[in-house]
Amino acid sequence: MKPFFGNDRTTDKKNDYMNAEPFLVATPPAQASRMQELSGEAVDETIRESRLPLFARIFTWICGYLALICLGSLVWERVPIRAAYANAPQLFWVGGVCLVLFVVLLILGHRKQKAVLESEDADRYVDRLAETTNDVFSQLGVPETAEEVNALGFFYRVKKDGEVRPCKGFAMQLALYFNYTFRAYVDGERFCLANLEGVYAVPLAELKAIRTVRKRIALSPWVKDDPITDDKFKPYKLGMDKYGTVYAKWYHVLEFEHDGETWGIWFPNYELPAYEKLTGLKAEE
How many whole angstroms separate alpha carbon 2 and alpha carbon 10? Predict the structure, then answer.
């Protein structure tokens, strides 16, 4: 099965061509795309300005680490405070000073972030980004009733037996699957997935089934407005580690046939209701 939002790196480890490209039926006007990009850059710059300088952030975590080492070692020894201070007074002073600096810098960072992100300028940039994003979708002909859904993309290699095996795209990549956001809708006889790059369309007549794959996967990032802990996601038994990688115990593949070849659109388990509603198909085990 050929992954729709997949990059085949069986023979070319640097291949960036996405399989879905031939299904791209519309792209946004250059001017609309440029305005959206500029709005996004303004928001990104605001977020950067809301943080403490890099050296301050590094120094913050150095202080926290030293405080943990110094004060933690005193606790680990399990001796009375007076005896511990007599044996190693420098640990008390270094650990105490580092702890104070760590807390102070955290507070300053939080205050700066709050001040910048809650400013009128920040609100204006966010509103402008929403406007330009909606303008791109409007010019693409995406209806306002389109549902926001996620689909999975990944790099892969094809084994000798024809099995598709996800692979890492770069050295520090933790999750093998990338979580993309689309606006999904049905346009006449086509199932459409739209993002800021354009509209991908598959004839409804070619859709065959929704397969359920009972395998654990790791995907990134979490892109829903509601947190992963929201009650609506509990049936899907999701988890998230400290790096933001999301873990799911199963996923689904929307299967279709095109020009005699079997294709699949991989998507997270929590999106099943949306895909079933849009395609009229029911998930199969």
Answer: 13
